Amino acid sequence: MAALLAATLDAFGDVHVVVNNAGATHRNRPMLEVDEAEFDRVYAVNVKSLYLTAKHFVPHFRARGGGAFVNIASTAGVRPRPGLTWYNGSKGAVITTSRSMAAELGPDGIRVNCVNPVIGATGLLSEFMGVEDTPENRARFIATIPMGRFSTPEDVANACLYLASEEARFVTGVSIEVDGGRCV
Q1: Is the residue at 22 inside a domain?
Q2: Which of 62, 68, 74, 150 has its C-alpha lying 20 to 30 A from 122's C-alpha?
Q3: Torsion (CA) 145, 148, 154, 156 in degrees, nearest 10
Q4: Proportion of the chain above pLDDT 70, given as a percent
Q5: Residue 8 predicted with pLDDT over 80
Q6: Band of the pLDDT at 1, cuts 50, 70, 90?
Q7: How many domains does the chain have?
Q8: 51 is annotated as an active-site residue
Q9: CATH number at residue 104
Q10: Residue 72 in contact with residue 23, Cβ under 8 Å?
Q11: Does the residue 1 lie in any domain?
């Protein structure tokens, strides 16, 4: 990670914002059917990644007088669906960790926020649904979203852009649900 930070600084000159967008899940199924290796992978990607980026970027942000982390969590951390217990817990940990980081790092001028997307048409869609990706199965999930569609990468990116921007300079410790009303 230190080599990545050095390469990033060499290529771009400075880093003002880190977006933690890595995510992994297990197939939607009863919690006791998820094996330990799957559990460990979900927590390593979704939670330990925050630790690793903080370990390397907090000193950089402190040295430059501030910065921002935008962590991608999920509506699963706020309003869990059955069958994704360990994924839901990992995204709840992202939200809580982000709030704790915001409280601890605020005096250093470092902001930490979350974006919580609802299900989207990504490569993990069939894993989240736990069934084949068909128009009928998509319709079942879309029916739970008041605005009647999945989230898009653009929806998530727009929330990240706001949280990374100067307009959000006094916003820290928040989670923005990008969910078409699912968590209402």
Answers
A1: yes
A2: 68
A3: -10
A4: 99
A5: no
A6: low
A7: 1
A8: no
A9: 3.40.50.720
A10: yes
A11: no
Residue entry with tokens 């390469």: 7
Where residue 173 falls (left for φ over 0; alpha for ψ -120 to 50; beta otherwise) is left
Domain that holds residue 133: 15-178
Residue 59 burial (C-beta neighbours within 10 Å; 0-12, 13-18, 19+) = exposed
Q: 146 lies in a domain?
A: yes
Query: What is the chain's length?
Result: 184
Per residue in 118-148, pLDDT (tens digit) is 999 988 888 998 899 999 999 999 999 999 9
Residue 45's nearest CA partner among 67, 20, 16 is: 20
pTM above 0.90, yes or no: yes
Rounded Cα distance, 118 and 178, in Å: 6
Where are the extended beta strands (E) located within 13-137? 17-20, 67-72, 110-117
Instruction: Tokens for 1, please give them.
Output: 């990670």
CA angle 80, 85, 93 (to 5 degrees): 75
Q: Is residue 141, in this structure, part of any structural domain at all?
A: yes
Structure token digits, residue 169: 């300079």
